[in-house]
Design a protein that fits this description.
The complex is a heterodimer of chains A (229) and B (217).
Chain A: H1 6-40, H2 49-62, H3 72-106, H4 111-138, H5 146-168, H6 170-200, H7 205-228
Helix pairs in contact in A: 2-3, 3-4, 3-5, 6-7
Chain B: H1 2-8, E1 15-17, E2 24-26, H2 32-49, H3 66-84, H4 88-103, H5 111-131, H6 135-148, H7 154-166, H8 170-184, H9 188-216
Antiparallel strand pairs in B: 1-2
Helix pairs in contact in B: 3-4, 3-5, 4-5, 5-6, 5-7, 6-7, 7-8, 7-9, 8-9
Classes of the chains: A mainly alpha (229), B mainly alpha (217).
Chain lengths: 229, 217
């Protein structure tokens, strides 16, 4: 009864073995490729320069051979700069989120973009926690206010840059207007001079007409161009 | 494991500390971004050192140190006095001092406050410039004022529009006043200015047509 003919079972077993191993090989290779792909996804943000500066300063401070220690005020300033950059990144993430979601729903962008975004979101969350911890370590209670300060610093920097940009135009505008005013005045004077001349000497009116034509059109168009800049 | 170690790993930046000034420095061949960042860092460090609290961390944005606000009000009031007395040039100087002081606020102080103060001072300086018939400077200052405070700043909108009109930049004036009206709603002064601008534009158009007509004839 229990006499099994192993040889005739060899074929089905072999079949199962080959099937199982091929599935296994496929899944490992597939997963590896997926992992490599997601690891190779470009990061959402460029390198965090401020964070690197901060870490390097801590590293310098830990170096026992150095003569000049890194003062704590410098470390605090570096941490504040790092928080300012984080604020800029948070704003960027928040702005991108809505747009990205609509685009994803419509199918206009691929899944890998979404993956990159979600990773960036997670990273920034970790980064915020990290900064708060560091701040509390540097000065007790600072973690609660550091991002308020960083927020104002970020906004103030933007405002000052914009105002500087506008004020820097002042010299050029003034120069343009001075020139323009001069030409307007000279033209006006010319008109005043020409009017009585036209009335008195009617014989040479042909010459006058040529003169008027040659002076006015040459000067006016160039000014108009400047004015539009 | 691999992911964790790459996250913790970072390149040490080629930066160093000046032993005397405590400024963070780098070699001149370093990337531009790093140099710019260090300049900002050192600036921030210097302004942190002026704090009187210990440890020297920026205080929360609110409440604001009242000293600077009081000085600013003083500068603005004396500027206004000079303007009323007809000494417009001196008023401009006073407002300029005020602007410098307002923008000299430490960066961690509330930007809303800075916007308010600066918008006011720029608008007043624009008015003083207009009294001196410095239309170009007036236009720039009024634009800066609007940049600092867009809504509820009808005066500054009007002043730049007026300056542009005086300089004969009618197209720009037309566009600017239109935007101002969008922002401020039906402001009477702005509406009047818009009518003035459109009247001038129409006049020029008519003259042009007449000229073309007479040339054809």
């Amino acid at each position: 009864m229990f006499d099994v003919d192993w040889w005739s079972l060899a074929l089905p077993f072999g079949y199962i073995f080959v099937l199982g191993s091929s599935l296994y090989v496929f899944s490992t290779i597939y997963r590896k490729r997926k992992a490599a792909e997601s690891a190779n996804l470009a990061p959402w943000f460029p390198a965090h320069l401020q964070k690197e500066v901060y870490s390097t300063l801590l590293e310098l401070d830990a170096d026992k051979d150095r003569k000049t220690k890194v003062p704590e005020s410098v470390v605090r300033a570096a941490l504040l700069r790092r928080a300012v950059e984080d604020i800029a990144r948070i704003i960027q993430v928040r702005q991108a989120k809505q747009a990205l979601n609509t685009l994803l729903q419509r199918g206009s962008v691929g899944e890998d973009l979404n993956q990159r975004f979600q990773r960036a979101e997670k990273e920034i969350e970790e980064e915020l926690k990290d900064v708060v911890m560091e701040a509390n370590a540097l000065a007790p209670g600072w973690g609660q206010t550091i991002f308020q300060s960083a927020n104002e610093i970020a906004a103030n920097t933007v405002l000052r840059n914009r105002l500087d940009e506008i004020q820097n135009k002042s010299a050029a505008e003034k120069e343009w207007w001075d020139k323009r005013r001069e030409t307007i005045q000279t033209e006006f004077m010319k008109e005043l001079e020409e009017e009585p001349a036209k009335g008195s000497t009617k014989v040479s009116s042909d010459d006058d007409a040529v003169l008027v034509d040659s002076t006015t059109p040459v000067t006016t168009p160039s000014k108009k161009k400047k004015g539009k800049k | 494991m691999a992911a964790a170690s790459t996250e913790e790993y970072f390149d040490l930046l080629p930066i160093d500390l000046d032993p005397q000034t405590k400024a963070v420095t780098t070699s001149s061949g370093a990337p531009k971004a790093l140099q710019a960042e260090l300049r900002l860092l050192n600036e921030l460090h210097r302004s942190l050192l002026t704090l009187e609290t210990s440890p020297q961390i920026p205080p929360p944005p609110i409440p604001v140190n009242p000293k600077r606000s009081a000085n600013l009000t003083k500068l603005k009031d004396s500027g206004n006095d000079l303007y009323r007395k007809g000494r417009h040039g001196d008023a401009v100087k006073m407002y300029t001092l005020g602007v410098q002081m307002a923008l000299g606020r430490p960066l961690w102080e509330p930007q809303g406050l800075v916007r308010e103060e600066v918008a006011n001072l720029y608008a007043n300086r624009a008015q003083a410039h207009m009294a001196l018939q410095n239309w170009a400077e007036g236009a720039v200052d009024a634009e800066a004022s609007v940049e600092a405070k867009r809504a509820g700043n009808a005066k500054a909108w009007w002043r730049r529009g007026k300056c542009l009109l005086e300089m004969g930049r009618l197209d720009e004036a037309d566009e600017w006043v239109g935007r101002g009206l969008e922002m401020e709603g039906e402001e009477a002064e702005l509406l009047a200015l818009q009518q003035e601008v459109t009247a001038r534009l129409d006049k020029i158009k008519k003259e042009e047509e007449e000229r073309i007509g007479s040339e054809k004839a």
